[in-house]
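Data deposition worksheet. Section B asks for the primary sequence of the deposited chain exactly as it was used as input, without tags or linkers unless they were present during the calculation. Section C holds the resulting structure in token form. Section D is free text for depositor observations; keep each observation to a single sentence. Incomplete worksheets are returned to the depositor.
Section A, Depositor: J.P.
Section B:
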Amino acid sequence: MGTNAFFLIEREKYTPEKFLSDTMIAAFNSDNRIIFDNHKNLENGKFSSTHLNILAHSYNSDENNHQFIMYVKAKENKSVIFSDYEDLDLDPNHELIRVGTIEEVFGAEGVILRFVYEYLNLNRSDYFWVSDYDWVFTWEDIQKINSMTYDSDWCYKDPKMI
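Section C:
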């Protein structure tokens, strides 16, 4: 299994509907396509999760992969629980949850960067976290990375060292 990534959002602010709306806007603004068929996974008759694909509009031969799958989960879904505050040097007084799970980051770094830039532009207090690493990306980090010459390893590097 490859490396996953997540958006970390304050629990109180999160709703799947707003996240989906911001996802659509971010995909539009990043010139990516979105495939979403509104298939809802239910647990005990209540919404648990759904998923969508974000795809690059153009298929450049120098890109390894042009898309990623992202899962959107209910606030009550147990898999959104986040507890790595100390490892990531985040304030535990802000109850964060892991939403917008991106499956398999490797190979889709360019599409992900364009999407994360636009998503965090809309939600500047949220974080982007690649789960195998002990740091998160803030809006300011993504702005800086986006302003530099593209590096396909951007999400594997500590933003404080870039």
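Section D:
The first helix runs from residue 16 to 29.
The chain has a mean pLDDT of 93.
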